[in-house]
Automatic annotation (TrEMBL):
Catalyzes the NADPH-dependent reduction of ketopantoate into pantoic acid. This is 2-dehydropantoate 2-reductase. Pathway: Cofactor biosynthesis; (R)-pantothenate biosynthesis; (R)-pantoate from 3-methyl-2-oxobutanoate: step 2/2. Its EC number is 1.1.1.169. Belongs to the ketopantoate reductase family. NCBIfam families: apbA_panE. Residues 19-166 form the Ketopantoate reductase N-terminal domain. InterPro entries: 6-PGluconate_DH-like_C_sf (IPR008927), 6PGD_dom2 (IPR013328), ApbA (IPR003710), Ketopantoate_reductase (IPR050838), KPA_reductase (IPR013752), KPR_N (IPR013332), NAD(P)-bd_dom_sf (IPR036291). It comes from the Bacteria. One of its GO terms (biological process) is pantothenate biosynthetic process. Transmembrane segments: none annotated. It catalyses: (R)-pantoate + NADP(+) = 2-dehydropantoate + NADPH + H(+). Keywords: NADP, Oxidoreductase, Pantothenate biosynthesis.
């Protein structure tokens, strides 16, 4: 893009700048939700080149709109110029560190970072990479599907839970923009218990649906109950060792509610295995196993689920 034109697109406003890394279904959904607000939103691209891109969005009422998004190039000049105040990282958990590494040093100290992915773990590494920036974490159960590279469809409503993790706080202006534009979003002073609760759902449903090649609803069958109970019990014990007190009965009730509410769906891990993609197992059951070993605890069932999915994955990834 012509440098002057690019400069004027970026500098034509005094609105807080939010950048998104990861133009997957959730990244594009959040882009749409924020771009209708008094916030300037852009994507950070994968290449050095900046460009404008037509992005299409279909909402739950099947209405389709197309707008022009700015894709900021990953070069020092563009990234400094864009002066991002909030960077939302919407890549898969296993891509977070690699996505942030080359750009974190180019972000201003007053830029805040928000990680929004399935599973847990990358925040521990990102914490060590921070260059003065504050870090918040979040989870969303909103449903979205990529119909093509730049066309996303919202497929379901869901809640989005956000909260501070470390360093300087997110600015109140940006926080209220997130909360007023992302439907059913809430801010938690203590976000970690929320993330562990979401993790409890994922440690039970995701690997089991992938191993047994079934929809979420089929996990209500009695034959799966012991494994689900054991995986969630281990998670609650590990969380307790991390000083996060969770109510085991409440967690199991929630797992079965989600199984019922999403009965017809295939979990994200089922879909990853079905399409022979890398899964998020390392940041789901793998995280429980990793944290258990820190506290000299056993997490046998999570270890078994991790091993089964890793074996499945290695089978197809090594042939790819
Ligand atoms: O988050 C999910 C996922 O598939 O990753 C659940 C809640 C299990 C819904 O499918």
């Amino acid at each position: 893009m012509n440098a002057n034109r690019y400069y004027s697109v970026i500098k034509n406003h005094q609105l807080p700048q939010v950048s998104i890394i990861g133009a997957g279904a959730i990244g594009q959904l959040i882009y749409q939700q924020l771009s209708s607000s008094k916030t300037q939103v852009n994507f950070i691209g994968r290449t050095e080149k900046s460009q404008q891109q037509a992005v299409t969005y279909t909402n739950l009422a099947q209405q389709q709109t197309t707008c022009t998004a700015m894709i900021v190039g990953r070069n020092d000049w563009s990234l400094q110029l864009v002066n991002t105040k909030l960077l939302i990282v919407c890549v898969k958990a296993y891509q977070v560190v690699a996505a942030l590494k080359p750009i974190i040093k180019l972000l201003n100290h007053d830029c805040h970072i928000l990680l929004l992915h399935n599973g847990m773990g990358p925040h521990l590494e990102v914490n060590n990479m921070l260059n003065g920036q504050g870090l918040s974490l979040g989870t969303t159960s909103q449903g979205a599907l990529k119909k093509s590279t730049w066309h996303t469809q919202q497929t379901g409503q869901g809640v989005t839970q956000l909260g501070h993790f470390t360093g300087p706080l997110m600015s109140e202006t940006i926080k209220s923009s997130l909360l007023s534009n992302i439907p059913q979003s809430q801010w938690f002073e203590d976000i970690l218990p929320m993330l562990w609760q979401k993790l409890a759902i994922n440690v039970a449903i995701n690997p089991m649906t992938a191993i047994h090649d079934c929809r979420n609803g089929e996990l209500a069958a009695a034959q799966y109950r012991n494994t689900i109970t054991a995986a969630v019990t281990e998670l609650a014990q590990v969380a307790a060792a991390e000083s996060i007190v969770l109510d085991l009965e409440g967690l199991l009730t929630r797992v079965y509610q989600v199984i019922e509410l999403t009965a017809a769906n295939y979990s994200s891990m089922h879909q990853d295995v079905h399409h022979q993609r890398k899964t998020e197992i390392e940041s789901i059951n793998g995280f429980v196993v990793q944290m258990a070993s820190r506290h000299a605890l056993r997490a046998e069932i999570n270890q078994q689920l991790l091993a089964s999915i890793t074996t499945l994955e290695q089978g197809y990834l090594s042939n790819a």
